[in-house]
Amino acid sequence: MLFTLTACITGNVVREDTIKLGGVYGLTGIVADWGQGELEATVLAIEEINEKGGVNGKRISLVVEDMKSSQTGVLTSTRKLITVDNVDAIIGPSWLETYASAASLSDEHDIIMVTPSTAIGALERDIDFKNIFSTLHSGRDQFRELLRYMATQEVDEIVLLYAQEPYWMDIMAHVKKDVILYNITILDEITFAPGETDLRTAIVRAREQQPEGILWGTLDDSSYTAFLKQRKELYPEAVLYTERTIETFVNSGEYDDVLYDIYYSAPSDIDETFVQRYETRWGHLPQTTTPNAYDATMIVIEAMQEGNMDAGSIRNYLNENEFNTVTFGKISFDKQGGIADGKFDIKLVSGNGIEVVSYHYDV
After folding, report:
1. What is the pLDDT of residues 305-331, one digit of tens each?
2. Which burial class, exposed, middle or buried, applies to 276 when counting CB atoms under 10 A from its CB (0-12, 13-18, 19+)?
3. pLDDT exceeds cutoff 50 at 162
4. If residue 152 lies in a helix (H) or strand (E), which one and from where to where?
5. How confident is the model at residue 125 (pLDDT cuts 50, 70, 90)?
6. CA distances from 260 to 203, 231, 253 (A)
7. Are 212 and 156 in contact (CB under 8 A)?
8. Which of 94, 186, 260, 350 is the most buried (most CB within 10 A)?
9. C-alpha angle 174-177-161 in degrees, rounded to nearest 5
10. What domains, with CATH codes, occur in the chain?
């Protein structure tokens, strides 16, 4: 669909003096909670730029496709944006390391994709996609900071418990290498199928090890809530360590009775003025990768403002420059197209809400 942002769009006709961006988001299915926020952040960024006159006098339009949280959906929607809508660049797709079928289109059609929610290391483990960039923080960096914090708290023995999802499999592969840096022992590694909601056996198995902490995660909401409820029932004293997806459940207010003793790492530098602008525009707080989508959009627009309109020149600009972001402050991209910089706080979810327990550690 053509997302109507400005008066320069009439029906499905976009004026020639308009720059056309494509957006591929998970608006239905498992990715919807993330994808909707990513879309809204992209819209906010484009509205702000258009209010200032656009890109060198050209307005920006956005053509939006729902990837439907499926391999077929992401492939079909991305291909449509490229071959039918002829967009100049793509924001997204969401969760491209999980729905990787569209990744090859970036090189095949020589088009830039800047995705706000892709673990670039998991996506590019075997193939280097030169035109794909991600504004999601490095999973390895954020969990290395979590391990560092565990070591300072003398958490020496842990259990890994996670879904067999590309994102979490990539993170835990790094964790298993990095624990040696902090003299942490992994007592057991327990995995479960994506979408699994009966995690009682896994929790009991973890309890039998009596770890000082459980490093755990899944991207599936049903698995997430099931785990939290079953953990309270079967192993209420378990201390959990994870990443900032937990904020989505804290902000919902629906799970307060199961949200306690959970530590997680999160970017330190999220711009509060962005949060205020976003809440004013949409009436609710940003979700996990919402600011990352705003950054992805602004970075592409900045490259275009500097006269880079084709994939090669945009790619070179992204590889050679630093960018001011609302998520991390100043960043650059590494050789894989991921975030090369970042500071992380450690936060604790307890009965009192969320509190920061360790500030601004450079990884």
Report:
1. 999 999 999 999 999 999 999 998 899
2. exposed
3. yes
4. helix 139-152
5. low
6. 16, 11, 13
7. yes
8. 94
9. 60
10. 2-136+270-331 (3.40.50.2300), 139-268+343-362 (3.40.50.2300)
